[in-house]
Amino acid sequence: MTQSRRNFVATLGALATTPVWAQTPPAFPNKVIRIVPFGTGGGPIDTLARVYADKLSARWGQPVIVDAKPGASGIIAADFVAKAPADGYTVMMTLPLTHVNVPILQKTPYDPAKDFTPLSMVATGGPMIVARANAPFNNLKEFVEFAKKSAKPLNYGTWGSGSSAHLFGELLQRQSGAKMTHVPYKSEAAVHSDLFGDLLDFAWANPSTARAQVQGGKMKVLGIAGTRRVSTMPNVPTFAEQGFQGFDVDSWIGLYAPARLPADVQTAWVTALREITAMPDVQARLTGYGFEPLGNTPAQFMQVFTADYPRVAELIKSAGVTPQQ
Fold it and tell me: Of 100, 104, 228, 304, which residue is the least packed, with the fewest Cβ within 10 Å?
């Protein structure tokens, strides 16, 4: 064997015994991030997701896009996120409907507890029961009296079967003895379009939408579900204040990532969400939407989620709701 060949073989041997160090993955984030909101494009959660997307993009120096996947009461969007890579680049902003209400009512292609990593609950609030501005009633008592005298069931619209608005509507029917028919829609905007077109007798709305329509002279608010009044419409009483019990289950807006998210990536998200939620302009947007800013930890988020399950299950039982309604 020639000397050059001996040197070549020796070099190969040295390379074979030299440890190959794994490359350190680049720090999160280093590419486009996707937020999948509950509901349709242009809806309340989609709009709020864009507020957070802009703040996150400015903070992280990476594009953050909002990619709505509407349909099936949010199941399509939730399933998409559940099956996404657990790398922090796809998250969901949603309501209890996808992770509490619907999974109690029917089998979903995802497990709301096992297939997601909780990040933060950014706000809490409750839906409002509304009617056209010229409706012949101004509060819940007058509405119930009108409904009980009606020769036909009153039609009402919500943004999905199993939503908190749907559950509260059915509970109101049971408590009042009035006949009501639920009509589910894909979006809140579609509900209100039919309300103003006289195709619905009453409806439900998020506080931000209700406030805008009230100011525009098209809508009146009869009451708000949940545990408290909202600061943007302080004159609207809760159901409990009007003598109706069982409507004190708050809604919330929270963000989830797929299960098995690396701890450092979860921490990056939680820190960012907490600090963004604390920004005065973001708090003003949340308050304007009728929600109370929160920004809690994953552990606190899970505590609320765990507590919500039996409460919503009881609400579903009390309301007599089934997936077919």
Answer: 228
